[in-house]
From TrEMBL:
Lipid bilayer topology: Multi-pass membrane protein
Similarity-based family: Belongs to the binding-protein-dependent transport system permease family.
Keyword flag Membrane: yes
Domain ABC transmembrane type-1: 82-262
Protein name: Sulfonate transport system permease protein
Keywords per UniProt: Cell membrane, Membrane, Transmembrane, Transmembrane helix, Transport
Organism: Paractinoplanes brasiliensis
Coiled-coil parts of chain: none
A Gene Ontology BP annotation from the UniProt entry: transmembrane transport
Transmembrane parts of this sequence: 32-54, 93-113, 125-142, 148-167, 188-209, 243-264
Lineage: Bacteria, Bacillati, Actinomycetota, Actinomycetes, Micromonosporales
Length: 278
C-alpha cells in the first residue's frame, strides 16, 4: 500500500503574506498614542536645554516657558487672549466648513453645479488666501470681519476639494444597486452618497483646521487688540522670547487638539467602514 504524503495546507507564499500582514498591519493601539510624539519632542527639548545643547538665545527652555505662561496668566489677560483667538478661529472655520461642504455637494451632485462652481474654486486654489488680505482690508476694514473672512476662505478650499473628490469617487456599483432596489434620488443621496463622501469630508476637515490656524497666526498680526498673535507682537517689541514661545506652544496645542478631535471623530463615525472591510 502506497502512502501519499499530504500536501501542506499553507504554501510558503501564504505564510509570507501572513507575516507581512503582521508586520505592516495597524497592530494594537496603546493608550496615550496621540500624545506619544509630542511627549518625545518635549523630552528632547528639555534634555537639550538642560545639557546646554540648545542655547537660550536659540530656544527658551521648557521651564522658562512655564514660568512665562504663569506670569502671562496672572499678570496679563492670557485667558482673554486665548478665548479671543479661539473665537476668531472657530467662527472662520465654521463659516468655511459650512460653505465648502454646501458648494461641494452642489458641485458633486449636479453637472450644472460643477460647471458653475468648480471652475471658480480651482481659480481660487491658485491664489493664496493670505495674498488677498490687503484687498480684504480695503473691503472690510482692519477689524474682526477681515480676520474671520480670511480664516473662512482659507478653510473653505480643502473642505470643498476633498468632499467633492469623495462624492465623485463613490463606486458606481452603488448606483446600480440603488436602481435595482428602486431607491428614490433623495434616499440614494441621503443613505449612499453622503455617507460615501464622509471620509473625504473628514480628511478635508483635518486640512481645514490646520489652514484656519495658519490664517489665525497671520491675521492676528494686523491691528489685533487681543489674541495670541497680539501677545506675540507685544513680546517681539519688548524682546521677550519666552513669551513668544508661549504663544507658539499655544498655537501648536490648538492645532494638535483640533486634529486629534477630528481623527477620533472619524474613527467613531466611520466604524461601519471598518466593519464592512473586515
Amino acid at each position: 500500500m502506497t502512502v501519499i504524503d499530504k500536501a501542506p495546507t499553507t504554501t510558503p507564499y501564504e505564510g509570507d503574506v501572513r507575516v507581512v500582514r503582521r508586520r505592516l498591519g495597524p497592530g494594537r493601539r496603546f493608550r496615550g498614542a496621540f500624545w506619544a510624539g509630542p511627549a518625545v519632542v518635549l523630552a528632547i527639548w528639555a534634555a537639550g536645554s538642560a545639557t546646554g545643547l540648545i542655547k537660550p538665545a536659540i530656544l527658551t527652555s521648557p521651564w522658562d516657558v512655564v514660568i512665562a505662561f504663569g506670569t502671562q496668566w496672572t499678570d496679563h489677560d492670557l485667558l482673554g487672549d486665548i478665548l479671543s483667538s479661539l473665537t476668531r478661529a472657530a467662527s472662520g472655520l465654521a463659516i468655511g466648513v459650512l460653505t465648502g461642504a454646501v458648494l461641494a455637494v452642489l458641485s458633486g451632485l449636479s453637472r450644472v453645479g460643477e460647471s458653475l462652481i468648480d471652475g471658480p474654486i480651482q481659480i481660487k486654489r491658485s491664489i493664496p488666501t493670505l495674498a488677498l488680505i490687503p484687498l480684504f482690508i480695503a473691503w472690510f476694514g482692519i477689524g474682526q470681519e477681515m480676520k474671520i473672512v480670511t480664516i473662512a476662505l482659507i478653510s473653505l478650499v480643502p473642505i470643498y476639494v476633498h468632499t467633492h473628490n469623495g462624492l465623485r469617487g463613490i463606486d458606481g456599483r452603488y448606483a446600480e444597486l440603488a436602481e435595482t432596489l428602486d431607491l428614490r434620488r433623495g434616499e440614494f443621496v441621503r443613505h449612499v452618497v453622503l455617507p460615501g463622501a464622509l471620509p473625504g469630508f473628514l480628511l478635508g476637515m483635518r486640512f481645514a483646521v490646520t489652514s484656519s490656524l495658519l490664517g489665525l497666526v497671520v491675521v492676528e498680526q494686523y491691528n489685533a487688540t487681543a489674541g495670541i498673535g497680539h501677545m506675540i507682537t507685544l513680546a517681539e517689541q519688548y524682546g521677550q522670547t519666552d513669551v513668544i514661545v508661549v504663544g507658539l506652544v499655544i498655537y501648536g496645542i490648538f492645532g494638535y487638539c483640533a486634529d486629534t478631535a477630528v481623527r477620533l471623530t472619524g474613527r467613531k463615525v466611520l466604524a461601519w467602514r471598518q466593519t464592512l472591510e473586515g
